[in-house]
């Protein structure tokens, strides 16, 4: 298996399919709007298709009404998905079947390690259950082997962040694709769905940069070429603190769409002209898509909120 799979970079002619894949654990706020907008503009700049997928597998974290708020707010901002909105909780059976296939192929195994068993290893799974051949059990996790690739290095060239690489066996070890509580892990579901939807380009926040090597490993196991990646900087209030729903960032008010969209274009360093201020969302989006240039973004994973370009 190749350690670095060729991405789509050689195939600029391939139809572009991008997506925004929110988790409905909170309402749409300014930070998630930036992720949505970057993926939308990148897709539309390329005359591609832009999809929305609801990543609601972590049921205990879902917030009532959040999925509806996200979709309604995107619509108020003029961002309409060009296809049905997929909902991951409706696809559970497919994920379970894929997990079973990975187990049958010897790529994955059951693991009954508890959090306290693993605490001495600082997040790097030591392979405890890899050769134990534990029988299926509802309350066991399922882990994917990372010792079975050529050299364990997973590298890619991010369109903004540049070269990024992880040596999975030593930096992470075998990782979970089904949690002990039975919930299918994000890493597997995102890869399966991006494959099923034919996604060629993933544009998302840089907090997911370090998930990408795990996802590349899954692409390699599933025998599918990975997409291109663009990880945009996260806006944070302080170093290490995400402008996120978890921190209770304010839900966006659809009535303020025009003003907020202008701010978002500016926060993505697209320097929208003053005339666009307060223009209807459709007009701002059309300008944004025509002029989209992600290389204007600073090459960094985090930007402090108060260092964003002034509007
Ligand atoms: N659902 C993930 C999140 O909201 C994003 C998935 C992705 O874009 O790959 O953090």
TrEMBL record:
Annotated Zn(2+) binding lies at 111, 113, 125, 129
GO BP term, pick one: tRNA modification
Q: Which annotated residues bind L-glutamate?
A: 19-23, 55, 186, 204
Regions annotated as coiled coil? none
Record's keyword annotation contains Nucleotide-binding: yes
Q: Which GO terms describe its cellular component?
A: cytosol
As one GO molecular function, the record gives: ATP binding
State its Enzyme Commission number(s). 6.1.1.-
Question: What function does this protein fulfil?
Answer: Catalyzes the tRNA-independent activation of glutamate in presence of ATP and the subsequent transfer of glutamate onto a tRNA(Asp). Glutamate is transferred on the 2-amino-5-(4,5-dihydroxy-2-cyclopenten-1-yl) moiety of the queuosine in the wobble position of the QUC anticodon.
Q: Which family does it belong to?
A: Belongs to the class-I aminoacyl-tRNA synthetase family. GluQ subfamily.
Q: What is this protein called?
A: Glutamyl-Q tRNA(Asp) synthetase
Q: What is the lineage of its organism?
A: Bacteria, Pseudomonadati, Pseudomonadota, Gammaproteobacteria, Pseudomonadales
The gene name reads gluQ
């Amino acid at each position: 298996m190749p350690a670095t799979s060729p991405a789509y970079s050689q195939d600029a002619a391939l139809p572009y399919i991008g997506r925004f894949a929110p988790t409905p654990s909170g309402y749409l706020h300014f930070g998630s709007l930036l992720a949505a907008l970057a993926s939308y503009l990148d897709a539309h700049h390329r005359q591609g298709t832009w999809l929305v997928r609801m990543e609601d597998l972590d049921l205990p974290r879902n917030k009532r009404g959040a999925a509806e708020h996200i979709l309604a707010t995107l619509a108020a901002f003029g961002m309409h998905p060009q296809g049905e909105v997929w909902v991951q909780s409706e696809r559970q059976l497919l994920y379970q079947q894929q997990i079973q296939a990975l187990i049958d192929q010897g790529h994955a195994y059951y693991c009954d390690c508890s959090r306290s068993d693993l605490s001495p290893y600082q997040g790097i799974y030591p392979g405890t259950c890899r050769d134990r051949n534990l029988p299926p059990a509802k309350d066991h996790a399922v882990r994917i082997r990372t010792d079975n690739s050529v050299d364990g290095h997973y590298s890619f060239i991010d369109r903004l962040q540049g070269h990024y690489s992880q040596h999975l066996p030593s930096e992470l070890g075998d990782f979970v694709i089904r949690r002990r509580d039975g919930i299918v892990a994000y890493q597997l579901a995102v890869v399966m769905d991006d494959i099923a939807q034919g996604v060629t380009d993933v544009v998302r926040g840089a907090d997911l940069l370090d998930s990408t090597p795990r996802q590349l490993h899954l692409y390699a196991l599933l025998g599918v070429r990975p997409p291109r990646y663009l990880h945009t900087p996260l806006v944070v209030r302080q170093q290490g603190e995400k402008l996120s729903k978890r921190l209770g960032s304010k839900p966006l008010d659809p009535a303020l769409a025009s003003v907020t969209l202008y701010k978002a274009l500016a926060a993505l360093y697209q320097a929208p002209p003053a005339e666009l201020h307060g223009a209807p969302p459709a007009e701002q989006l059309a300008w944004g898509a025509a002029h989209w240039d992600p290389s204007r973004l600073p090459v960094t994973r985090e930007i402090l909120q108060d260092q964003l370009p002034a509007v």
